[in-house]
């Protein structure tokens, strides 16, 4: 009180001095008894000025805690590898057997003879693989998904729909050359002629209905709705294949071979066209 002296402050005897220099004269700025620190903060190394050398994390700043860096695409997991590898191996096996007229192809022909039973129901199912039926379904779904993605501010809102359209347009680019190259005759009920392997109707249905479901999945709420959409696409494609075989339009292996190729194409589409929606920090995230 009434202290008007303006000189530099002086150290006063007492407990404060013990906390500054340490009771044992060790010079430790953290403890007065000279013992080793017991807290992580006390164990940190400091620079000559006494400041900690470690920088505390800042809110909003990403930290790397694993070997995967932000922004780099992750490698496909085991399900993705199986969906790409197993259908490819099966397609190669079927094609080899058909070209070489192997035991698998001969068994396929015998099985077909026992399955052909033409009827209205089988014809209806087979017609679901027509371009005039399957392609408009995909076009409507693609337009709806593109509109929803743009309305919600999704980055690259056009990408999923464009990928599905490109995949659909590419179907004749691989089906027609394979038909000409393999030149497999059709079932006896179809008369003379070649070009039945692989099935174009099966490929059209698989890509159209499969891609339509892939486009819709991000916009469906709840696992039941997504599961129902996937099951619907699977049932429709199984029905198309069964209708083609029952009507005698294709051998069973013609249908299975197209399923194998389309499984690989749809897997690639699901990874390439995954939408990303904007976030407040501008980094984007998988959406919606």
From TrEMBL:
> InterPro entries attached here?
PAP2/HPO, PAP2/HPO_sf
Q: Ranges of Polar residues compositional bias?
A: 21-39
Keywords, alphabetical: Membrane, Transmembrane, Transmembrane helix
Q: Which residues cross the membrane?
A: 78-100, 120-145, 157-176, 196-220, 227-245, 251-269
The record places domain Phosphatidic acid phosphatase type 2/haloperoxidase at 193-276
Q: Where is this region: Disordered?
A: 1-71
Keyword Membrane assigned: yes
Name of the molecule in the record? Phosphatase PAP2 family protein
């Amino acid at each position: 009180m009434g202290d008007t002296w303006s000189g530099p402050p002086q150290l006063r005897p007492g407990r404060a001095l013990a906390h500054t220099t340490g009771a044992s004269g060790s010079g430790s700025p953290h403890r007065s008894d000279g013992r080793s620190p017991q807290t992580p903060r006390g164990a940190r190394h400091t620079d000559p000025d006494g400041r900690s050398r470690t920088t505390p994390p800042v809110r909003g700043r990403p930290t790397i805690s694993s070997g995967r860096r932000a922004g780099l695409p992750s490698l496909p997991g085991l399900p993705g590898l199986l969906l790409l590898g197993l259908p490819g191996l099966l397609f190669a096996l079927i094609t080899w057997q058909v070209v070489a007229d192997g035991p698998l192809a001969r068994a396929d022909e015998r099985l077909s003879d026992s399955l052909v039973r033409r009827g209205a129901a089988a014809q209806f199912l087979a017609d679901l693989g027509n371009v005039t039926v399957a392609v408009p379904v995909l076009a409507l779904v693609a337009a709806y998904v593109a509109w929803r993605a743009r309305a919600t501010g999704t980055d690259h809102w056009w990408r999923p729909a464009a990928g599905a359209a490109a995949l659909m347009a590419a179907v004749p680019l691989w089906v027609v050359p394979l038909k000409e190259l393999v030149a497999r005759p059709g079932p006896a009920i179809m008369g003379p002629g070649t070009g039945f392997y692989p099935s174009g109707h099966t490929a059209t249905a698989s890509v159209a209905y499969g891609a339509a479901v892939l486009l819709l999945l991000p916009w469906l709420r709840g696992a039941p709705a997504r599961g129902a959409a996937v099951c619907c696409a699977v049932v429709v494609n199984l029905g198309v294949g069964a209708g083609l075989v029952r009507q005698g339009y294709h051998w069973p292996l013609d249908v299975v071979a197209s399923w194998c190729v389309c499984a690989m194409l749809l897997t690639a589409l699901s990874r390439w066209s995954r939408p990303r929606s904007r976030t407040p920090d501008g980094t984007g995230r998988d959406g919606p």
